[in-house]
Write a structure and sequence with these properties.
CATH superfamily of one domain: Ribonuclease H-like superfamily/Ribonuclease H
Structural class: alpha/beta
Radius of gyration: 19 Å
Oligomer: single chain
Low-confidence stretches: none
CATH architecture of one domain: 2-Layer Sandwich
Shape: globular
Number of helices: 9
Mean pLDDT: 90
Order of helices and strands: HHHHEEEEHEHEHHH
Distance between the termini: 19 Å
CATH class of one domain: Alpha Beta
Largest sheet: 6 strands, mixed
Length: 282
């Protein structure tokens, strides 16, 4: 890595060592005809992706001491399209679970969706109106484990019913967790269709109902873990609203954000918040 003043979002040497083997293997498989390895340090490319995710800046506004827009966007898209971002995410997820003395793949997941506004320029056909939230944009769905780690991500138009999102999330959770998932908790927005689909996959879907006597925001048993994950993700400003033209890019942003969180967790680093004066001044 070139000498420059580090950003709070930069990977430490220890954090980069967690990711480097996957990137190095990818780079080795994608040699040019001439054998040229490219002008950019792969660690700096990852740092640029994480910096953009954390700060929410536009491609053209990436700092001048990070790789330029064309190089960063090229690798972001390449790793999105061939699943490298998910490979890195899955590797770290398994390590976090192992450190917590749990099996690599979960038996229980929690599902939920979140509707978010979209930025100007996002293609209209990929968006919709969520009448319940009175929000025009996209719907981000997650399946997380009891350690609030992401197992599956889906990004759809906001007018998509939770049933449709739930069935896809169950399919992805069953696939990504190697068939170990046996239980799923959902809220009342998911209906019997999701439970029936889960039964076909060998997953018992339980709808956690809200106590009608409770008012205001009250964390629901079991389900609060996915709410915590959404709270962690929203610290990454690129996820505050959906800026991506492709829903697959939106999903990739979630994987990179969680990769960043898990890398810090595995190395014992505290994740700085934007309310931290030292983080803001850095």
């Amino acid at each position: 890595m070139s000498e420059r003043k580090p950003y709070p979002s930069d990977l430490s040497d220890e954090q980069w060592s967690l990711i480097e083997p996957v990137i190095a293997a990818w780079k080795d498989r994608h040699r040019s005809v001439s054998g040229h390895q490219g002008a950019y340090d792969m660690r700096e490319i990852v740092n640029a992706i994480l910096h953009q995710g954390r700060t929410g800046c536009q491609w053209a506004c990436l700092p001048h001491d990070l790789p330029q827009k064309s190089a960063t966007s090229y690798y972001f898209a390449a790793w999105r399209d061939d699943g490298t971002d998910q490979v890195i995410h899955e590797l770290l997820r398994c390590r976090v679970r192992e450190r917590a003395r749990r099996s690599e793949d979960p038996t229980v997941v929690v599902l939920d969706t979140q509707s978010v506004h979209v930025a100007a320029g996002v293609p209209v056909p990929t968006t919709g109106l969520d009448p319940a939230k009175r929000l025009a944009g996209r719907k981000r769905g997650l399946a997380v484990d009891v350690l609030w780690l992401v197992i599956a991500v889906i990004v759809l138009a906001a007018n998509t019913h939770d049933n449709a999102a739930g069935t896809v999330l169950l399919d992805q959770a069953a696939e990504h967790a190697s068939g170990t998932v046996r239980k799923a908790f959902v809220d009342q927005g998911f209906k019997n269709q999701v439970a029936l689909h889960g039964a076909g996959l060998g997953i018992d879907v339980e709808i956690v109902e809200r106590n009608p006597q409770e008012t205001g925001f009250v964390p629901q048993p079991k389900r609060w873990r996915v709410e915590q994950t959404y709270g962690i993700l929203i610290l990454h400003r690129r996820l505050v609203r959906d800026y991506e033209h492709r829903p697959s890019s939106s999903a990739s942003r979630v994987y990179w954000a969680m990769t960043h969180v898990m890398a810090r967790r595995l190395t014992g680093a505290n994740t700085p918040t934007w309310r931290d004066p030292q983080a803001v001044a850095a």
